[in-house]
Amino acid sequence: MEVTSVVQLDQTKAKDEYPNLSLRPLQVSDVDDFMVWASEEKVTRFCTWEPYTNKEDGLNYIKNIVVPHPWLRAICIDDRPVGAISVSANSGNDKCRGELGYVLAFKYWGKGIVTRAVKMVVETIFVEWPHLERLEALVDVENVGSQRVLEKAGFQREGVLRKYLIVKGRSRDRVMLSFLSTDYQS
Ligand SMILES: CC(C)(COP(=O)(O)OP(=O)(O)OC[C@H]1O[C@@H](n2cnc3c(N)ncnc32)[C@H](O)[C@@H]1OP(=O)(O)O)[C@@H](O)C(=O)NCCC(=O)NCCS
C-alpha cells in the first residue's frame, strides 16, 4: 500500500516549510542519503548502534535489514530521504503489539517533521495491520525531544522501565509510551 495515500496531514509549521513530506520504502539507491543521518554522532546518541563510518556498511544494512523489514519507511522531503521510521512485527502471543522507532538527520531537527511522520504511521499502520492493537515506543529518559514527539502525536506515557537496556556500555532507563488502535478510533 502507498503509505502517503491514506493520510491526512495536520497543519503545522513544518507543513508550510516542507509541504512535500512523505513516507516510502528506503532503497539501496538511497544509500548516500542514508549515510547522512546514519553517520551522525548526535543522531545515534540514544541508539544501540554506533555511527556508520563507511558506505559499504550502509549498503549491507539496507540490503540485509531494511529491504526485508516488514515495515520500514524513509521519511522524505521532495522524495529525498532525510530519516527513517519503522514498526517491528511480532508473532504469537506478542502479535498484538509493534514497536515504533525513528531517526532524522540533524539538519532537520526541531521542525515538526518526525511528529508528522509518527502521525502518518498511526493513521496507516492499524489499517495495514488489522491484528495490531498497540503501537509502543521505548525512549531513553534523557531523550526529551523524542518523548515530546510521541506525546504530540497522541501517545500515552505509561511509566519508566528502570535499567532496561544497555546502550553504549551503560544500562539505561527507558520511558514506555503507547498508542492503541482504539485511541485512533476514538
Ligand atoms: C528525537 C527526534 C526524532 C525528534 O525529531 P524532530 O523532527 O526534531 O521532532 P519535532 O520537531 O517533531 O518535535 C520535537 C519536540 O521536542 C522538543 N524538544 C526537542 N529537544 C528538546 C529538549 N532537549 N528538551 C525539551 N524539548 C525538546 C521540541 O521543542 C519539539 O516540541 P514543540 O513542538 O512542542 O516545540 C530527532 O531529534 C532524532 O532523530 N533524534 C535522534 C534519534 C532518536 O533519538 N530517535 C528516537 C529514539 S526513541
UniProtKB/TrEMBL annotation:
Residues 21-173 form the N-acetyltransferase domain. One of its GO terms (molecular function) is acyltransferase activity, transferring groups other than amino-acyl groups. Coiled coil: none annotated. SUPFAM superfamilies: Acyl-CoA N-acyltransferases (Nat). Transmembrane segments: none annotated. InterPro entries: Acyl_CoA_acyltransferase, GNAT_dom. This is N-acetyltransferase domain-containing protein. It comes from Gossypium darwinii.
